[in-house]
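Quick review question:
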């Protein structure tokens, strides 16, 4: 077997299960899970209808490149959403079975192990697939810590060693970020593009939360839009990953796309042809319908906005909490070790959250997820509010203890917030 398999860590949910094994949760409260980032809003009826209508497609093998109508629907969506001008739907778009498999497969296709000690850079904390993809591609991960003191911005200067940049073949970024919700700014994109031009690495921009934001007039900036604005109309060395899972509440449908540099996508498509991962024809039909409709996405955002506003109102008296720039997570500081916080919260209040340290790695001398928890506000509003009340009660225990000790009010010092992108 590939020895790199033994370099894979257990997935955070396995670590969480081990942490909570043997802990008896408060049985007087119904369990509430805020740990998994799985959307729970209803799948729009029209998507279900099209899926059923298109079942006739099951009688033939689908093309790996996807149907023309799906690629056209995706291209039209990119043009509307990111103001990119014309996208070549035959060359600049490839449908994928959810962004997860594509994010993984992409590293396998991009990394060239013949070049010696290939490096791949990823944010930290991060969506765990990146690390597995990097290790199994035979590369060495290098992390960029996302830190509260600079608003969880992408700080490229953290990798000061030019030797690392020279060996870098691929950089993963996640915007809006899981778990911080932070969005990469145009200036940050420019800095990243300049490094890519200097060192020749490919950029994989994971944008699966791009449609979950709170101000209808300010959709998060995307990689292709940033490239277009900076005059990089060929999207050289840039590929973005998008998904219907969160946008349209269809995580089980497994549908997304990659778009960007036509030369890279031609090679990636060749890889995928051999990999054998063409999208189910009925899913292709339903996906084309979903990408062509925005009304359900606006309604989806309304539900998240309501949930976040009400949850923040409950939590803000007891802990430092801000509306994230986008995505559906709260990334909250913990007054005690994050693992202990998650364990006691489960025990006393029957609420499950992910310890931040499970979503990050030790890099540059720290684990930037330490003393944070990730709270996924995916459940229905009432359940999220019930969970927020329990979190409030739990946080209050520490605020009370601290106030007794300090003789002052307030649970945590505020950290500087980041300007809007
Ligand atoms: C940051 C990030 N990227 C990608 C994915 C994968 O989403 P999907 O495969 O459903 O498109 C997830 C899922 O939670 C995620 O959090």
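Suggested answer, residue by residue:
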């Amino acid at each position: 077997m590939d020895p790199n398999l033994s370099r894979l860590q257990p997935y955070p949910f396995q670590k969480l299960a081990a942490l909570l094994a043997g802990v008896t949760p408060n049985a007087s409260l119904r369990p509430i899970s805020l740990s998994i980032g799985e959307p729970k809003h209803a799948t729009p009826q029209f998507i279900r209808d099209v899926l059923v209508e298109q079942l006739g497609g099951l009688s033939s093998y689908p093309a790996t490149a996807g149907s023309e109508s799906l690629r056209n629907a995706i291209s039209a969506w990119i043009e509307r959403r990111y103001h990119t001008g014309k996208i070549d739907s035959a060359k600049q778009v490839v449908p994928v079975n959810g962004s997860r498999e594509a994010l993984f497969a992409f590293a396998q296709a991009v990394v060239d192990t013949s070049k010696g000690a290939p490096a791949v850079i990823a944010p930290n904390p991060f969506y765990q697939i990146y690390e597995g993809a990097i290790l199994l591609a035979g590369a060495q991960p290098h992390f960029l810590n996302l830190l509260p003191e600079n608003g969880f911005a992408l700080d490229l200067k953290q990798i000061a060693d030019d030797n690392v940049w020279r060996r870098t073949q691929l950089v993963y970024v996640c915007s809006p970020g899981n778990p911080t919700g932070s969005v990469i700014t145009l200036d940050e994109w420019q800095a990243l593009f300049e490094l890519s031009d200097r060192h020749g690495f490919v950029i994989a921009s994971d944008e699966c939360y791009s449609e979950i934001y709170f101000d209808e007039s300010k959709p998060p900036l995307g990689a292709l839009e940033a490239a277009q604005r900076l005059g990089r109309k060929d999207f050289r060395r840039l590929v973005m990953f998008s998904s219907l899972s969160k946008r349209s509440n269809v995580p089980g449908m497994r549908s997304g796309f990659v778009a960007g540099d036509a030369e890279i996508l031609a090679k990636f498509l060749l890889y995928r042809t051999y990999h054998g991962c063409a999208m189910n024809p009925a899913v292709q039909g339903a996906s084309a319908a979903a990408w062509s409709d925005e009304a359900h996405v606006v309604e989806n955002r309304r539900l998240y906005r309501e949930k976040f506003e009400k949850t923040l109102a409950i939590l803000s008296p007891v802990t430092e909490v801000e509306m994230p720039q986008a995505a559906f997570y709260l990334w909250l500081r913990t007054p005690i070790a994050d693992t202990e916080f998650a364990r006691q919260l489960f025990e006393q209040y029957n609420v499950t959250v992910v310890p931040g340290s499970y979503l990050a790695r030790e890099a540059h001398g720290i684990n930037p997820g330490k003393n944070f928890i990730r709270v996924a506000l995916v459940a229905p509003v009432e359940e999220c509010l019930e969970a927020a009340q329990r979190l409030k009660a739990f946080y209050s225990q520490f605020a009370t203890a601290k106030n007794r000790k300090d003789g002052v009010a307030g649970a945590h010092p505020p950290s500087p917030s980041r300007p809007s992108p």
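Why it works: Residues 37, 98-100, 127, 174, 178, 206, 208, 243, 245, 251, 256 surround pyridoxal-5'-phosphate (CB under 6 Å). The chain has 14 helices and twelve strands.
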